[in-house]
Amino acid sequence: MKNLAPLPLDIKLMNGLASALFGVLVLLLLGAALAYVQQLPKFAIRGVTVTGDVSHYNAISLRANVMPRLQGTFFTLDLKATRHVFETMPWVRHAVVRRDFPNRLKVQLEEHQPVAYWGAEGDSRLVNSFGEVFEANLGELEQDKLPRLNGPDGQSSQVLATYQTLQPLLTPMDLTLEQLELTPRGGWRAQLETGTALELGSGRLDELVARLERFLKTVTQATARYGRNVSQLASVDLRHTDGYAIRLNGVSTIEAGDVKKLMQVNR
Length: 267
What we know:
This protein is an alpha/beta fold. It is built from five helices and 13 strands. The strands form two sheets. The protein has a ten-stranded mixed β-sheet, with helices on one face. The termini are far apart.
């Protein structure tokens, strides 16, 4: 049997080029066909199934707020951008978005759980259980008996943690922190539900706790000296090294003629 003569180099190159061109053509045709299929109306997003925290939303409100902002079909939709659309809605803290063949989305929502107001009186911002600030319609709050926290931007988590540490110390005496503020200079101010203003001073959290505990141990006896109770405190200053100063509603002094009495309570 005779051996076939090897093909000339130029013939080999032409055959290789033809095969490569054919392969490219096939890929282009497949790509065009895939792009065509992806854009078929059959695969346009028709609905969203929502699970998780949905107390502030229903199917109608989600459809009205989200569907017009979705771009693309089941195949071309950008899930990251879609998640961002959901997370820009009031009350939504986090969203997980998945495709549901052939033309739906499955979305799991985590809503903000408000634990306090944030900012000055009248501010519509809230703080969630993670110490994050968010904006929402206050008229949709399920509970309006929330404390008001305030402080520099980015410090909401620290302010919430301080509140959650101090409030349990006051609870046994039926006292409630209505407001807590971290000033720009690092000082802490508070107001009780009774209207009492508290100057807590600055420092570490354990230092604040120590000052408040010292006050709570003796405040009942201190107010009793003037025939008053804790609810009749006008203000308390815990910044003193050797004690604290209080002002009592309805207690006057002859020297000052003031309606409130300032006294120093030592350890």
